[in-house]
Amino acid sequence: MKAGLKGIITASVQKAVQAGSVQIPDSGKLPDIIIDRSKKDEFGDFSTNIAMLLAPLTKQPPRRIAEAVAAAASSDDAVEKCEVAGPGFINIFLKKTYWPAALADILKKGADYGKGTSGRGRKVQVEFVSANPTGPLHIGHGRGAAVGDSLANVLAAAGYEVTREFYINDRGRQIDTLGRTAFLRYHELLGRKIDLPEDSYKGDYVKDVARDFILKNGDRYVDSALDDVQKIFSDFAKKELLDRIKKDLMDFRIEFDVWYSEISLYERSLVEKAIEELRQRGFVYEEEGALWLKTTALGDDKDRVLRKAGGDMTYFASDVAYHIEKIHRGFTTVVDVWGADHHGYEGRIRAVFRAMGLDDKMLRIIFIQLVALLRDGAPVPMGKREGEFVTLRQVMDEVGADACRFFFLMRKSDAQLDFDLELAKKQAPENPVYYVQYCHARIKSIFGFAKEKGVAFLEDFDEGILKRLVEKEELDIIKHMAMFEETVEKSALHMEPHRITFYLTELAGLFHPYYSKTRVITDDAEATLARLALCKSVGTVTANGLKLLGINAPDKM
RNA sequence: GCGCCUGUAGCUCAGUGGAUAGAGCAUCGGCCUCCGAAGCCGAGGGUCGGAGGUUCGAAUCCUCUCAGGCGCACCA
């Protein structure tokens, strides 16, 4: 419905321009029209500041522009009146007949309500989690997973064609270290005395891996030299740990379209090809035995090594090849979801896009800030090096996937997040998770009650009865629901899925008080049906929003 | 030292240059004989870290500054 409002304002601006009362300079480009719910009822239903945005362009006073636009908009069928207020706000009062139509539109669209077309089918890749298969997913990965997955949902809803991708760092020094650690744990389990080097993976999960290795292979490698069998242990361990990561993500209800192996880049010679491509563009040189990418010419702080003097390729070289591959695959936008501790890496990856002659705006990097895990307000210690960090699995098992995802999506991702385990579990008002879900369950139960009372709510009811919804609370709910499509679009545009969380909390915050105050099922048959229609649509919008967050909309709690 | 992120109510945070800065929690006081009390109603709470600047207008943009977090590898 919001698109309709935007259309009214756009047309009105154009009318004012044609009439000569607003003069747009030759460039002729209108600023984006932004319409918001009015802050106060006396400011109408919706407001726009378009006149104030046009003022500097047209060099005309904002109030005069506003008056011209408001006059044009007043003649629109849906508009009751338009007022100019303050420095140049246009306050739009819509006709009462607009709201039944808006509500009917939501009911008609159902599960599709909220879907938009602003993405125009453009291809977007969202790469997220991409945790090394050297250990379990920790809580920070979980936040990245929730944000990445929800962002992908939101982009898809806004009309983009989305690919979800997990990049697997399945080669390099950390994998070698993993293999060596597994090798040592293997010996330990077979009764040998071992000495675990400082840079080993110290978590018990490597013992689990070694135990499984024994089940499959027995003690046949116990007398082998590490160098001879390291690859066997590395391969075994990384596969097992990746399987666990996949299992964790599946239980967190996250599915990837593509699992992209770093090794596969080498198998297809894509790393060499990428370097060759960059060499031809003049950004590759050799110095002190190493091969360098001249990223300083592309906005980075210092040049970066692609191939070490010892001959090994760096992790960066793979990543260069991977991102060039993303470009060749035809994505118009590439989204990388990274832990905030990787922000030092941003410059060199942007440089790759610039080196390829592309606008690096096509790369969007979402940084996921730290999660501070609390229990009853007291911090839960973390620290991967010691091998005693809190895993996603532990938290998910303790508080449930729904609460977990909701907490991760309660804040914008570049703000630190306090996650209180006890709070997330509490079935009490101070837990924000259930407020929204309860809204959905409550509505389902209203329909259960209606059925008991023999009140039938049919899909093809007479829309005329919706004009019985005249209470302020009822209209406020409809107005908020009318903003859902806009919210999804803004969420996609800014790549901020947490906006959906806030939107749903607000919707529930309108519904619960309404429910307490107003009886839905009464002797008045028409009013009952109209209110059931309202309830139905709130349930629909809540379910649609929760789906974008990857959270269940329960019928019962 | 350089770079990035964050400073908004007691706490945790919303707030694409616009109107008198908003929620939730916590605190205090009320509400279950009636569609789910995981809910509702009411009250108090603010130098938007600080200082300049840009402008009709700044929590929002720019500069400086203070505080916290993170990063500055031929590691990944």
Concise structural overview:
This protein has 557 residues and is an alpha/beta fold. Helices cover 49% and strands 13% of the residues. It has a 5-stranded parallel sheet with strand order 7-6-5-11-12, with helices on both faces. A 4-stranded antiparallel sheet has the order 1-2-4-3, with helices on one face. It has a 3-stranded antiparallel sheet with strand order 8-9-10.
Explain how this protein is built:
By secondary structure, this protein is an alpha/beta fold. Among the domains are: 2-95, 2-Layer Sandwich (Gyrase A, domain 2), CATH 3.30.1360.70; 173-251, no CATH class; 431-549, Isoleucyl-tRNA Synthetase, Domain 1 (Orthogonal Bundle), CATH 1.10.730.10. The chain is built from 20 helices and 15 strands. The protein has helices at residues 2-18, 50-58, 62-74, 98-109, 139-157, 173-189, 205-217, 226-251, 262-267, 270-280, 315-328, 346-355, 392-399, 401-408, 421-425, 433-452, 472-482, 484-494, 498-517, 525-549, and strands at residues 35-37, 46-48, 79-85, 89-94, 123-127, 161-168, 258-261, 284-287, 290-293, 304-307, 333-339, 363-368, 371-375, 378-379, 417-420. The strands form 4 sheets. Strands 7-6-5-11-12 form a 5-stranded parallel sheet, sandwiched between helices. Strand 11 (333-339), helix 12 (346-355) and strand 12 (363-368) form a beta-alpha-beta unit. Helix 2 (50-58) packs across helix 3, helix 6 crosses helix 7 (205-217) and helix 13 (392-399) crosses helix 14. The chain is flat and about 85 Å long. It binds one RNA strand of 76 nucleotides through helix 2, helix 6, strand 9, strand 10 and helix 11.
